[in-house]
Design goal:
Blueprint: E1 2-8, E2 12-19, E3 24-32, E4 40-45, E5 50-55, H1 61-72, E6 86-93, E7 104-105, H2 108-116, H3 122-139, E8 145-149, H4 159-162, H5 168-174, H6 183-197, E9 205-210, E10 216-221, E11 224-228, H7 249-259, H8 263-272, H9 275-280, H10 286-294, H11 298-322, E12 327-331, H12 332-337, H13 339-347, H14 358-363, E13 370-371, E14 380-383, H15 388-401
Parallel strand pairs: 1-6, 6-8, 9-12, 12-14
Antiparallel strand pairs: 1-2, 2-3, 3-4, 4-5, 7-8, 9-10, 10-11, 13-14
């Protein structure tokens, strides 16, 4: 059974075709700059065949799907013989709101439901609907499509964790509450962590740190989320590549008044010009900041000190929420590849008996995972490479199998 996994953005379409018999990725790639004159296509198959940054006219997401299908069916370098070899399509959908607590088969009502949540994720959900409709245009309505929601894993949070202390009417009128994101990643790595611990996930207390250009931390008790750092939007939490994370709200109004910024301009500043980029003045890419810090740049060093401090604060608070913790997970681009940050964060918990094996920690990068804490560490610390696409494919397979 082959499952096509799709992550549709406003001007992009990421895809993976996965053989569910052995969970091998048969092909993956991305359509970029959809709707512009400079559309390009990148494709890589499990045989090693590649198409890299090839100009390809794509006026819309339907054109992008046709481009993907053409490459997969190529007589010489394709990965399937017939379009019917694709059993189903799994779509990543960012915002499921309070409507969707788990993955669902897509029908007309589900499309309307995803559309109704566009105000909560205007850039993401609108693009996901476009991707779903384009998929139908290319494959037809008979091919099963499944929506896997980033927010669904967080739907187990209790009201005391997801409610904001604003007038209750805004929750009732607009759904203002904490939703959380990166749910597919947190669900995947926490399940993998339970396997590494040799336990049923129902018997675990885990803190999962998804650290990348966008980052979030989640407290997971018995396989269920009890709190998470991102909120109504992915802006909440701690400092990220270009996002501020949690702020005193008066900082927002103060800057807006002093600079004469509109709400839209202020949102742009907080989401795209702040975080690690804003503090360092160098880049939103941590690799660039690491290079500058190694040369002694004071703002680069400050950026890393702030990042590690804020991550440690969230981990510490979630230990209280969980009533203890037996495992901390680092995942995603920064979490999987920046050993120095893992050390810096875990130093805050040395007083509790958390100990990192620095040799193993430094070797655990570039897709390598495993235990990086010492045998006598009071809390086990893991690096677990995330695989959101595989989780989406598994959910899709399970739903169509029913």
């Amino acid at each position: 059974m082959d499952i096509l996994v799709i992550n549709a953005g406003s001007s992009s379409l990421k895809f993976q075709l996965i053989n569910m018999e052995n969970e091998e990725v048969l092909a993956k790639g991305i359509c970029e700059r959809i709707g512009s004159d400079g559309s390009i296509f990148t494709f890589k198959s499990h045989t090693g065949f590649q198409i890299k940054d090839k100009p390809f006219p794509m006026n819309n997401h339907t054109d992008a799907f046709n481009c993907v299908v053409k490459a997969m069916l190529d007589p010489e370098n394709g990965v399937i013989k017939n379009i019917s070899d694709i059993a189903a399509v799994g779509h990543r959908v960012v915002q499921g709101g309070s409507l969707y607590r788990e993955s669902v088969l897509i029908d007309d009502d589900v499309i309307k439901g995803i559309e109704s949540l566009i105000p909560l994720a205007p850039l993401h959900n609108k693009a996901h609907v476009e991707g779903i409709v384009a998929c139908r245009n290319v494959f037809g309505k008979d091919l099963p499509e499944v929506a896997v929601f980033d927010t669904a894993f967080h739907s187990t949070m209790p009201p005391k964790a997801y409610m904001y202390p604003v007038p209750y009417e805004y929750y009732e009128k607009y759904g203002i509450r904490r939703y959380g994101f990166h749910g597919t990643s947190h669900r995947y790595v926490s399940g993998k962590c339970a396997e590494l611990l040799g336990k049923d996930i129902k018997d675990t207390k885990i803190i999962s740190c998804h650290l990348g250009n966008g980052s979030s931390i989640t407290a997971i008790d018995g396989g269920k989320v009890v709190d998470t750092s991102m909120g109504l939007t992915p802006l909440d939490g701690f400092m990220m590549g270009t996002r501020t994370g949690t702020l005193d709200p008066s900082v927002v109004t103060f800057i807006a008044e002093k600079e004469g910024l509109t709400p839209s301009e202020m949102s742009d500043l907080l989401n795209k010009k702040s975080g690690m980029l804003g503090v360092s003045g160098i880049s939103s890419d941590d690799r660039d900041i690491c290079a500058a810090a190694a040369k002694g740049d004071p703002r680069a060093i400050l950026t890393h000190q702030m990042l590690e401090y804020e991550i440690a604060k969230f981990i510490g608070s979630y230990m209280v929420v969980l009533g203890g913790c037996e495992a901390i997970i680092f995942t995603a681009g920064i979490g999987e590849n920046q050993a120095s940050h893992r050390t810096g964060v875990c130093k805050y918990f040395e007083y509790m008996g958390v100990k990192i094996d620095e040799k193993i920690n430094n070797e655990t990068i570039k897709g390598k995972g495993g235990l990086i804490s010492t045998p006598d560490s009071t809390i086990k610390v893991f690096v677990i490479p995330t695989n959101e696409e595989l989780l989406i494919a598994r959910d899709t397979r399970d739903l169509i199998s029913k």
